[in-house]
Write a structure and sequence with these properties.
Spore Coat Polysaccharide Biosynthesis Protein SpsA, Chain A; 308 residues
């Protein structure tokens, strides 16, 4: 029989959106279903644009397997399908190629319980790239709205997010399905979360994140479209010179990677005018002039646990 404190622990829905990566998904689910959290946990696997694996429920008893049939195809729609399907007090996300530490949920739920004014909790990550392991740990300062806008703070990774359902649905809002290709949906969402309430942080690396396997890593045309969307949507991005320069620098790099030399150089100049210290502008110029390849620069960034 559970003690009074155990019975009172908040319930958690864990949303795992997936496409068709069965081996990675099983590794993820093994970690998610092995948590030491002593409250109720419901794992919801959402298949997007692929047929559900009929054996998954047998291998992982108690999980729910559903399909994203009625919302926009893509990661945003799949996550929203999972959110709407569940009904627990808390909602957590995990990408289908990431691995949680056994203490992740217990540490983060405890942090939320200790900070009742917080709506969202994040933790640190360990970036895995080739044979490298790089820890990236956020702080309360790095996940404040202005700092997030300027630096993105990817250590506040979506696979670390635990959020109160009521705040998610009523104040922060669901994942934006209008973002081109769902690219940057996590950044868009965390900006909105930071605008609603301070984000609490467990300053430990509680998630292993495999770097460089993103489905978006080379889809520069979609990335550029999503950057323009974000600048138009978020005043904090458009009005802050450093935040704007970071995004314009990434856009100029994408244009250079696509071989659009003239546009890349023009965008790089706009970036420098906004913030001459923005290094992405100079990387874009180097790629546009053929001094180095975009792939080489991306590899160098990934080895440091970062992106362009």
């Amino acid at each position: 029989m559970k003690s009074r404190s155990e019975a009172a622990r908040p319930s958690v829905d864990v949303i795992v959106a997936t496409h068709h990566r069965p081996e990675l998904l099983r590794r993820t689910l093994t970690a998610v279903t092995s948590q030491d959290y002593d409250g109720p946990v419901q794992v919801i696997v959402v298949y997007d644009q692929s047929e559900p694996d009929p054996h998954l429920g047998t291998e992982f008893p108690g999980i729910e397997v559903i399909s994203n049939l009625h919302r926009t195809p893509g990661l945003a729609g799949a996550r929203n399908t999972g959110i709407e399907h569940g009904e627990s007090e808390l909602v957590a996300f995990c990408d289908d190629d990431d691995v949680w530490a056994p203490t992740k949920l217990s540490r983060q739920v405890a942090a939320l319980e200790a900070e009742p004014e917080a709506a969202t909790c994040v933790s640190g990550i360990t970036v895995l790239y080739d044979d490298r392991r790089i820890e990236r740990i956020p702080t309360p300062e790095t996940v404040a709205l202005r700092k997030l806008a300027r630096n993105r703070g990817m250590e506040a990774h979506p696979s670390t997010v635990v959020v109160r359902r009521r705040e998610l649905v009523e104040r922060i809002g669901l994942v934006d399905e209008a973002i081109p290709g769902s690219y940057g949906e996590d950044f868009d969402w965390i900006l909105r979360a930071a605008a609603v309430a301070p984000i609490c942080v467990v300053q430990e690396a509680l998630v292993d994140v495999v770097w460089g396997q993103s489905l978006f890593s080379q889809r520069w045309a979609t990335i550029i479209e999503a950057i323009d969307y974000g600048l138009a949507k978020h005043e904090v991005l458009a009005r802050d010179p450093l935040a704007r320069a970071r995004l314009l620098g990434r856009k100029s790099f994408g244009l250079a990677a696509l071989g659009h030399r003239r546009e890349a150089l023009a965008c790089a100049w706009r970036t420098i005018r906004s913030n001459w210290r923005e290094r992405r502008a100079y990387l874009a110029v180097a790629v546009a002039l053929g001094l180095i390849s975009s792939d080489r620069l991306m590899d160098m960034a990934h080895r440091r646990g970062r992106g362009i």
